Amino acid sequence: MILEQLMNGLGQGAIYALMSIGYALIFGVVGLVTFVHGDVIMLGAFTAYYSFVLLGGNLLLAILLGFAVSGAMGFFIHRICYNRFFNSPRQISLICTIGMGMFLRNLVQVVAGTESKPIPNLFGSGSVTLAGLRITYMQLFIFAVVMALVLVLTIFLNKTRVGMSLKSVSMDKTASALVGIDTKRTTTVGNMIGCGLAGVAGVLLAMYYGTITPMMGGNIGMKAFCCAVLGGASSVGGAAVGGLLIGVCENLGIMVFSAGMRDTVSFLLLILILLVKPEGLFTRRSR
Amino acid sequence: MSHFLDVQDMAVRYGSVNALRGISFHVERGEIVTLIGSNGAGKTSSLMAISNLIQGTRTGRVMFEEEDNTHFSPSKIVKRGISHVPEGRHIFPKLTVEENLLMGTFGAVKYDKAKTAGLLEEIYGMFPRLRERRNQLGGTLSGGEQQMLAIGRGLMFSPKVLMLDEPSLGLAPLVVKEIFELILDIRDRGTTVLLIEQNAGLALQIADRGYVLENGNITLTDTGENLLHNDQVIKAYLGI
Lengths: 287, 240
Ligand SMILES: Nc1ncnc2c1ncn2[C@@H]1O[C@H](COP(=O)(O)OP(=O)(O)OP(=O)(O)O)[C@@H](O)[C@H]1O
Ligand SMILES: [Mg+2]
Known about the structure:
The structure holds two protein chains of two kinds.
Chain A: H1 2-30, H2 37-55, H3 59-82, H4 90-112, E1 117-118, E2 127-130, E3 133-136, H5 137-159, H6 161-171, H7 173-178, H8 183-209, E4 211-212, H9 217-230, H10 236-256, H11 262-276
Antiparallel strand pairs in A: 1-4, 2-3
Helix pairs in contact in A: 1-5, 1-6, 1-8, 1-9, 1-10, 2-3, 2-4, 2-8, 2-9, 3-4, 3-8, 5-6, 6-8, 9-10, 9-11, 10-11
Chain B: E1 5-14, E2 17-27, E3 32-36, H1 43-50, E4 57-64, E5 67-68, H2 74-79, E6 82-85, H3 97-103, H4 113-126, H5 128-132, H6 143-155, E7 161-165, H7 173-188, E8 192-197, H8 200-206, E9 209-214, E10 217-223, H9 224-228, H10 231-238
Parallel strand pairs in B: 3-8, 3-9, 6-7, 7-8
Antiparallel strand pairs in B: 1-2, 1-4, 4-5, 9-10
The complex binds adenosine-5'-triphosphate (ATP) and magnesium ion (MG).
Magnesium ion binds near residues 43, 44 and 87 of chain B.
């Protein structure tokens, strides 16, 4: 029983990891928290819904579309919230992301309606048993997708010119500009990839939960924020660990309390960790 | 005749603060030129204005090799051959010494492996201490080593002009001497140097020409030698 909950936690944690990796990427290049992330995840979830309804039950297609649609949204978010306010006080960008989130939520409500949408379960209830541990096909699929994306992202960040530019911009914008990196373009790319990953996380969440609503972004965005903060805000590896940690704690927590306490567990964890070890968590200077 | 690097009527404001009030200065190919001035005189702002990194408003013109660079992006300016080693060094803390140096080649058009390795060798030749520490993280270097790394990184793409913002800041006298000898060496290898210093005595000793900056205005300009013996400069900056 406890092992099964652990497995559930890891599955959900893998999705959390993906969305907080995206969050950390954005925080890194922008140097500022964002409040639109949850709604970008929601956008990915709705992309999955329409992909399944209109284009059939093709999982890979849904994931690709989720990445593309949310990634494109990342481009506009960067244009609207950050690029325009490059020389303005930083809170303006921050407030702009809040507005952008409201806009997205309402836009999806207008287009898709306010009621929740069911997502077909393409995996049935099938599972494999490994050394006495039951792992559902759904969980296997989630692990595979997340691990593949983390692998690709790691190679991208460490081996390609664009990836290394991303890393250096998140370390030091001025230094990056002075070695000839186009910081504006790099920040745009960082936003697009971060949002694209959030979109994929949305697709996976939609499949995992089985229903989605236009309002789902609020809570989910806060969770992505929690996981990223736990992992050190702009560290990609740290965000992944933070995501897994929160996923596991939530699922073990609801064994002790009740299913309704899921969010309480994760936010309690955030508060506790911030109380005990706040200095190691936000180590990066912004700008 | 036009100048190699020519800053014309440059003014910089940060909100209500006038950091530069329309200054003009120039640097010729192969020179060491220094801007000296006390805290807040506008020295850093002058370099930031050339690199188009001012977080405020800027008017005036920057000409480089007879081309108007004023509105180029910072990365384009680097690609034109102007290297800026900023105040506070700005080392990438989580990259190793060698990775920091390699980042320096980002400004150039893509170098192949052999060319990059050659440049790296050249920098290690100038800074043997960096070679010893090539795998150490940038953030863990001493202040002097970080300064050497910052200068080394700035030289990695063979720039035409090297702009140095207070390379002596916070360093022991012996290290400062070492760095100033290096600056002479860099010039002798063919790189033009624009040097900003509060340590006016040292800067004027190695500079061909100097400008004195006060409250955003240039109040005096002459050869380094003459400024070193100028009564006004002696009183205000050499503390004798
Ligand atoms: N980003 C900024 N925002 C607001 N004011 C600024 C900013 N940067 C510089 N200033 C102001 O502009 C003036 C000139 O600053 P600058 O950094 O150019 O001086 P400096 O000569 O380099 O001084 P120091 O020797 O202390 O480095 C100062 O009064 C400073 O407070
Ligand atoms: Mg300065």
